[in-house]
Amino acid sequence: xxxxxxxxxxxxxxxxxxxxxxxxxxxxxxxxxxxxxxxxxxxxxxxxxxxxxxxxxxxxxxxxxxxxxxxxxxxxxxxxxxxxxxxxxxxxxxxxxxxxxxxxxxxxxxxxxxxxxxxxxxxxxxxxxxxxxxxxxxxxxxxxxxxxxxxxxxxxxxxxxxxxxxxxxxxxxxxxxxxxxxxxxxxxxxxxxxxxxxxxxxxxxxxxxxxxxxxxxxxxxxxxxxxxxxxxxxxxxxxxxxxxxxxxxxxxxxxxxxxxxxxxxxxxxxxxxxxxxxxxxxxxxxxxxxxxxxxxxxxxxxxxxxxxxxxxxxxxxxxxxxxxxxxxxx
Length: 330
Ligand SMILES: [Zn+2]
What we know:
The chain is an alpha/beta fold. It has eleven helices and twelve strands. It has a domain at 17-229: Ribonuclease Z/Hydroxyacylglutathione hydrolase-like (Metallo-beta-lactamase, Chain A). The chain has helices spanning 2-17, 69-77, 94-97, 100-105, 114-126, 200-213, 230-252, 257-261, 268-271, 282-296, 299-324, and strands at 32-36, 39-42, 49-54, 57-61, 84-88, 109-113, 139-141, 145-149, 152-159, 167-172, 177-179, 219-221. The strands form two sheets. It has a seven-stranded mixed sheet with strand order 1-2-3-4-5-6-7.
């Protein structure tokens, strides 16, 4: 009974406090939360927005959806009356660029990676983003560019072929914060957009680069999920590497795609922590890993492995038959 009261009380406190740590924060009083110094995170609908609210003006990283901008500006103005000077897009996806046109009208200069610009044009042409040219960036960058706001340096870094081929990380050097876009999502299975140049190898390389850029105090604003630190990046690296190894083992062992995807034990540690409860489900993630593994190995690799496993089995059996069976498994 006491436990029940504690649970009810904590639910109540969370709801009045508005600090429920979920991804969409619609209706909450605290859509803007301080990360450190003048850097803030804004959560509403879409990818996390990073804000720098400086004396010299405001810089915004990612813009969620078109219908969010009005609320975003309202919320920013409660803290800072300075103009929005720059918008950086971490990549081209609609949940990160939807507010571009609105902010452009406010006078902001929109900046993205060269390839993100191309991807955005392609998605407009294909009609996968229901928008026009007014959401396009005004300036593109191939790798590094620095924005100076007083004593803060805000620097872009390109990651090759990670979540897409047009990803940039945005590093707030003095504040020691990095906005990663979807090159890192916290506590969730990641999406790798292969149609727009993303690769699993590049994604892992991107996480390694990101980890290297951090010290133990660095705060990470992920594309989705809660603010984290380098341990969270390490955890995602280990998650992808561990599951890939397990899938590779089963694949080389001759298991079929549907059999491997159905093996819940390969991902259960992460499923239990809710990794599959977001944009990418467990099954979608497993399919992506499977596709990557099956492209890495040839048919003869599989036959080779099957032969070797058979040899080991035969050897073990003959040892057992030879009266060695009571010596245990080694
Ligand atoms: Zn994305």
